[in-house]
Amino acid sequence: MDSPSSPVADDPRLGACAYLIHMLLQRAEQCQPGLLDSLLGGVSADRDAVRAQGAAPAGVDAIFAETLRMLELASAQLKAAGKSG
Question: How far is it, in rounded angstroms, from Cα 79 to Cα 85?
Fold first, then answer.
């Protein structure tokens, strides 16, 4: 079964940006513990505020979803590394 192609896989520049942001988020969390949780809370609050205003422009929900996914992934990987190391 073929999986749909990812925009990151199709464009190395997007992949490089996602990788760099991921590394920067993890480094920032190490220097300032709690930053990722704060960012997660802020993004969730912004998403909820946009939804409360009514219909958002096309693609806005997907942007919030991807932002939250990236933050959650960075956080989960740091927590897993902390448990194993």
Answer: 10
Encoded amino acid at 16, one letter? A
Is the distance from CB of 29 to CB of 74 less than 8 angstroms? yes
Domain ranges of the chain: 9-84
3-state SS track over the chain: CCCCCCHHHHCHHHHHHHHHHHHHHHHHHHHCCCHHHHHHHHHHHHHHHHHHCCCCCCCHHHHHHHHHHHHHHHHHHHHHHHHHC
pLDDT digits (tens, 9 = 90+) for 28-47: 999 999 999 999 999 999 99
Which percentage of the chain shows pLDDT scores above 70?
A: 88
